[in-house]
């Protein structure tokens, strides 16, 4: 909801402003930092035994195609209750995989990554998610009532704080659309989330039309992750607008206890996820 | 309290027992009967004189004798009158505009200028609305807020954002008064235009420092805007037609010539054009100014003034938003005798915004309301001493937000954030004292109190820490809640009190130059919550209380003032150093929208600012204008304090968003002939501090930027040149209808000034890009103004 309120300000500015162009800017360059993308996604109705963790390093902001994958690290997840250990295999391309992971809802896990003699630790809880009630298209809803959007409805469990994370992607698109939402204003109600695309010639983006397929991923996440991803999305979408918040160093949960300043970017998240897709009529 | 009594005794001891009489009266504009604020009234050949107050009143007490009274006021022909002071006398003056009687100006210029140099008041800028109207503006919309940004020490945020910054202060540190009523948001359409309709405004005074004891409650500045009283001689219509909006004002005598009235309205219609062009989103604004006054008798006068303004936004039918200020003020001027002037005011003001989300079936409303009672007195004791004193009380109601579902099917639960209440009291005394012929002082004391009133619950936190530092993750997060305490209505949650000394000294070096110095301490009890780069209309005000302390600023200033060539030129140089305690800043990732416990999102810090300002002004002749240059620094620091950790930016000083190292403005207007006059301004400013990315990485298939320290980079420098030409087609003096065309080009060399630079991933190519948003390129404008 808050995302939409902030979106409103951006909309106002868009209406009133005229001109924007891409320019060259000199930006500062920070030393590379380890990036841990440890997203343990347990798709509902599967065993969740196959998991992948990605390691890389950060690069200068405008450098593209730099080889920044991290190989030779040791990656282990342990279950805090029974101390069972899950050791990931280095695939030598920046990914580390496992095929016998055991996901248990509401269980606490610890991730340990050893790289370049430094040990990175992260702790999280595996968060379950409710089922999706209905997926349907509409014209009236969304930001623009003349543009098609796909809606996802689900029932929020009453009397508990719930945090959700959505990943939408139209089939064939390079980049996904992320959305975080909580039940702060909607506790116990049927909640609705929509995915709409507005026409933008600059990036060759078109509105949804019949035949388009939208992929939908619906995650349950922790409050801590919700805080992290909210800021990440906000900064990804609107950094530098006059009405955006001042961007900050984004810190996830991957700490370096022996050398706290050398923490890692990224996050260790464990989520139950519902995946579906919708074909526009 | 004891200190005040003591002070009173000191003041009274200054009273002399010489055989003296008083001459007093009111100074007005001959053409329309508007009272003149700040006119010099002088006894020729002496150093005895005063300036008129905001109601045009003056009072001079001098030993018995023969005198020549001289009245001078910038832009008006100076008047003089010989008289014998052998009894208390009442002499009213009416001044005519100076264009016709140039000689008179030259005759007495020497005397009248002394006062300006002598007055200890520094760091103040007074602009008449005629001057503001001559400044070229974007789209021909005369804008008071943009005009004051041309003064040294005053800057604004990005183009299209609201408010203004004074000497490194934040937007919420300005006390903006329209006929004494507090205006909480000065902008229309987010900041493209200001809420002040130039046709309804008489004059504007901006105190950048040395704030008189009469004012309190904001630590950076006071912008004191006075509405016109209304023409008391003739019925007049004034108006204008422009690209964006049109204006119409009517004024004239009322109550059988015992008073006058003014009604002014303004509305934008650009949205109608957009609609016609098929644009379904729209934005528009309107406002209404009212004023009337009534002379009960020689000693009593009533004033009633009001303002109502509103902005409306509409997006494709699914989102609506509106916001606006409303205010009203009833004043009673009472003259106890020819030396004791008083004014009592009853003031109401309110600011509110609403959002309506049809898609989500809910609306959101938020407001701040205050009721204010004020009593101010000026006692013109003798030729050496004038005493101002008074009291005020403000009752505030804060409604930080209420969310309501707008349909049965809405997913939204109703929510009311805790309403807050507070009372702010003020008691002041302030003397203007001519100590010797060369040394003049103004010294005063303000006692301010603030009570955060009950009628709401407050959350308790473990260890009384609403914010704690998570040492493992290295971030600040909300503290652990431990139930809440309910404070009954009428009880006090927290009380604050501050003694605020104000001191200003002026030493006259010779007949054309002086040195001034000043110190002032000001407390601020209410704060605007904003964690965005620029303030937005959706920001919420919050009172000091258990968790937020009052801001307290100390400012020191030193200045040199000189007049050249019969006051054709003047030079002002001022240096200032200002510190502000208890300036809050927001923790990384702070979330203020719909936030009931603001205390969990903030840390207490401090701010400091210092700078050097130069102003060269030419105020006579066909070419008038000024050159202003400021070099300054504004920073803040927010340590972790009790929450632990080093604090924001590791507890180091960082640039405030409104820090501008260099700020130059050159403004001029030139009268070519009777039909044509030209205006121009040039502005150069160091770029706004921003935070740039210092790296990138991939997460969830997106390229995520990492960032350097808060505000450690800068946008490119801002500069532009504007021109305007005013054409008066048919100048026949006897014709009642007077029209003029104003042609302008804003940003004539089409500089693409970065209002912002945003960093993001191109969604088609996936590459990172820096996108510059520039709001106004070269913008031509035509508007037509008329008087009838």
TrEMBL record, chain A:
<dbReference type="Pfam" id="PF14054">
    <property type="entry name" value="DUF4249"/>
</dbReference>
<dbReference type="InterPro" id="IPR025345">
    <property type="entry name" value="DUF4249"/>
</dbReference>
<protein>
    <submittedName>
        <fullName>DUF4249 domain-containing protein</fullName>
    </submittedName>
</protein>
Automatic annotation (TrEMBL), chain B:
<comment type="similarity">
    <text>Belongs to the TonB-dependent receptor family.</text>
</comment>
<keyword id="KW-0472">Membrane</keyword>
<feature type="domain" description="TonB-dependent receptor-like beta-barrel">
    <location>
        <begin position="293"/>
        <end position="748"/>
    </location>
</feature>
<keyword id="KW-0521">NADP</keyword>
<keyword id="KW-0329">Glyoxylate bypass</keyword>
<keyword id="KW-0813">Transport</keyword>
<feature type="signal peptide">
    <location>
        <begin position="1"/>
        <end position="17"/>
    </location>
</feature>
<dbReference type="InterPro" id="IPR036942">
    <property type="entry name" value="Beta-barrel_TonB_sf"/>
</dbReference>
<keyword id="KW-0732">Signal</keyword>
<dbReference type="InterPro" id="IPR000531">
    <property type="entry name" value="Beta-barrel_TonB"/>
</dbReference>
<dbReference type="Pfam" id="PF13715">
    <property type="entry name" value="CarbopepD_reg_2"/>
</dbReference>
<dbReference type="Pfam" id="PF00593">
    <property type="entry name" value="TonB_dep_Rec_b-barrel"/>
</dbReference>
<keyword id="KW-0675">Receptor</keyword>
<keyword id="KW-0998">Cell outer membrane</keyword>
<keyword id="KW-0798">TonB box</keyword>
<feature type="domain" description="TonB-dependent receptor plug">
    <location>
        <begin position="120"/>
        <end position="218"/>
    </location>
</feature>
<keyword id="KW-0460">Magnesium</keyword>
<keyword id="KW-0479">Metal-binding</keyword>
<dbReference type="InterPro" id="IPR012910">
    <property type="entry name" value="Plug_dom"/>
</dbReference>
<keyword id="KW-0816">Tricarboxylic acid cycle</keyword>
<dbReference type="InterPro" id="IPR004436">
    <property type="entry name" value="Isocitrate_DH_NADP_mono"/>
</dbReference>
<dbReference type="InterPro" id="IPR039426">
    <property type="entry name" value="TonB-dep_rcpt-like"/>
</dbReference>
């Amino acid at each position: 909801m808050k995302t939409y309120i902030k979106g409103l300000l951006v909309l106002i500015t868009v209406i009133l402003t005229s001109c924007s162009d891409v320019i060259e800017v000199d930006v500062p360059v920070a030393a590379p930092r380890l990036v841990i993308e440890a997203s343990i996604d347990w798709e509902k109705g599967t065993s969740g035994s196959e998991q992948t963790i990605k390691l890389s390093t950060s690069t200068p902001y405008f450098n593209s195609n730099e080889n920044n994958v991290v190989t030779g690290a040791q990656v282990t997840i342990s279950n805090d209750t029974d101390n069972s250990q899950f050791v990931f295999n280095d695939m030598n391309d920046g990914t580390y995989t496992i095929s016998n992971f055991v996901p248990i809802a509401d269980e606490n896990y610890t991730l340990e990554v050893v790289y370049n003699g430094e040990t990175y630790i992260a702790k999280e809880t595996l968060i379950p998610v409710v089922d999706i009630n209905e997926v349907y298209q509409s014209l009236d809803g969304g930001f623009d009532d003349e543009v098609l959007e796909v809606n996802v409805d689900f029932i929020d469990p009453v009397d508990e704080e719930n945090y959700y994370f959505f990943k939408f992607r139209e089939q064939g698109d390079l980049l996904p659309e992320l959305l975080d939402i909580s039940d702060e204003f909607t506790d116990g109600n049927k909640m609705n989330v929509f995915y709409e695309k507005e026409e933008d010639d600059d990036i060759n983006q078109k509105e949804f039309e019949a035949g388009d397929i939208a992929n939908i991923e619906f995650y349950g996440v922790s409050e801590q992750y919700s805080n992290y991803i909210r800021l990440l999305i906000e900064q990804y979408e609107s950094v530098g607008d006059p009405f955006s918040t001042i961007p900050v160093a984004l810190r996830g949960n991957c700490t370096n206890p022996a050398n706290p300043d050398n923490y890692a970017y990224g996050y260790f998240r464990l989520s139950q996820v519902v995946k579906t897709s919708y074909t526009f009529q | 309290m004891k200190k005040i009594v003591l002070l009173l005794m000191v003041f009274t001891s200054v009273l002399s027992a010489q055989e003296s009489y008083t001459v007093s009266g009111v100074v007005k504009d001959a053409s329309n009967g508007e009272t003149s604020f700040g006119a010099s009234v002088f006894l020729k050949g002496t150093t005895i004189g005063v300036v008129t107050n905001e109601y045009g009143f003056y009072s001079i007490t001098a030993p018995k004798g023969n005198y020549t009274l001289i009245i001078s006021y910038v832009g008006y022909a100076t008047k003089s009158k010989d008289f014998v002071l052998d009894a208390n006398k009442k002499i009213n003056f009416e001044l005519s505009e100076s264009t016709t009687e140039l000689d008179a100006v030259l005759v007495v210029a020497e005397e009248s200028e002394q006062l300006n140099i002598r007055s200890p008041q520094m760091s103040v800028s007074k602009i008449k609305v005629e001057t503001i109207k001559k400044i070229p503006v974007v789209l021909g919309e005369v804008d008071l807020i943009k005009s004051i940004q041309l003064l040294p020490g005053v800057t604004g945020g990005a183009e299209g954002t609201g408010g203004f910054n004074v000497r490194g202060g934040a937007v919420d540190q300005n006390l903006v008064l329209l006929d004494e009523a507090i205006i909480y948001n000065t902008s229309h359409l987010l900041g493209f235009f200001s809420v002040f309709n130039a046709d309804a405004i008489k004059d504007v005074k901006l105190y950048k420092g040395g704030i008189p004891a009469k004012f309190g409650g904001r630590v950076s500045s006071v912008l004191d805007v006075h509405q016109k009283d209304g023409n008391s001689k003739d019925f007049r219509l004034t108006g204008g037609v422009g690209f964006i909006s049109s204006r119409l004002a009517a004024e004239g005598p009322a109550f059988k010539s015992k008073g006058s009235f003014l009604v002014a309205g303004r509305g934008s219609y650009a949205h109608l054009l957009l609609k016609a062009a098929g644009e379904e989103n729209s934005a528009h604004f309107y406002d209404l100014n009212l004023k009337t006054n009534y002379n009960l008798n020689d000693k009593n006068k009533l004033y009633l003034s009001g303002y109502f303004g509103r902005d409306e936004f509409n997006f494709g039918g699914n989102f609506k938003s509106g916001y606006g200020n409303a205010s009203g003020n009833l004043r009673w001027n009472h003259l106890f005798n020819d030396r004791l002037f008083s004014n009592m005011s009853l003031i109401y003001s309110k600011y509110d915004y609403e959002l309506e989300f049809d898609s989500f079936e809910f609306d959101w409303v938020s407001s701040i309301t205050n009721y204010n009672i004020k009593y101010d007195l000026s006692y013109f004791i003798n030729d050496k001493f004038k005493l101002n004193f008074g009291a005020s009380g403000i009752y505030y109601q804060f409604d930080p937000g209420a969310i309501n579902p707008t349909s049965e099917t809405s997913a939204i639960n109703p929510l009311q954030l805790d309403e807050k209440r507070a009372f702010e009291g003020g008691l002041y005394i302030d003397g203007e004292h001519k100590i010797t012929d060369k040394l003049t002082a103004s010294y005063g004391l303000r006692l301010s109190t603030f009570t955060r009133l009950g009628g709401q619950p407050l959350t308790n936190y473990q260890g009384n820490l609403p914010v704690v530092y998570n040492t493992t993750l290295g971030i600040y997060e909300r503290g652990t809640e431990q139930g809440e305490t309910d404070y009954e209505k009428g009880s006090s949650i927290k009380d604050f009190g501050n003694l605020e000394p104000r001191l200003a000294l002026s030493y006259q070096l010779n007949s054309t130059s002086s040195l001034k110095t000043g110190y002032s301490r000001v407390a601020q009890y209410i704060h605007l919550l904003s964690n965005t780069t620029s303030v937005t209309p959706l920001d919420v005000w919050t009172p000091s209380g258990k968790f937020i302390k009052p801001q307290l600023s100390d400012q020191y200033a030193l200045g040199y003032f000189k007049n050249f060539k019969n006051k054709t030129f003047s030079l002002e140089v001022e240096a200032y150093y200002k510190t502000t305690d208890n300036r809050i800043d927001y923790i990384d990732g702070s979330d203020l929208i719909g936030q009931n416990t603001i205390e969990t999102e903030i840390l207490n810090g401090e701010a400091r600012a210092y700078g050097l300002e130069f102003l060269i002004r030419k105020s006579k002749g066909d070419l008038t204008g000024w050159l202003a240059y400021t070099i300054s620094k504004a920073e803040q620091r927010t340590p972790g304090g009790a929450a632990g950790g080093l604090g924001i930016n590791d507890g180091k000083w960082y640039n405030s968003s409104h820090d501008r190292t260099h700020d130059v403005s050159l403004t001029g207007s030139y009268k070519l002939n009777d039909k044509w006059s030209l205006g121009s301004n040039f502005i150069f400013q160091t770029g706004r501090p921003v935070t740039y990315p210092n790296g990138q990485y991939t997460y969830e298939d997106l390229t995520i930027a990492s960032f350097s320290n808060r505000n450690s980079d800068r946008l490119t420098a801002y500069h532009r040149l504007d021109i305007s030409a005013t054409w008066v087609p048919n100048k026949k003096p006897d014709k009642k209808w007077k029209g003029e065309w104003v042609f302008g080009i804003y940003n004539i060399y089409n500089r693409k000034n970065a209002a912002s630079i945003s960093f993001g991933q191109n969604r088609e190519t996936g590459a990172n890009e820096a996108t510059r948003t520039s709001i106004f390129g070269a913008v031509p404008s035509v508007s037509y103004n008329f008087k009838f």
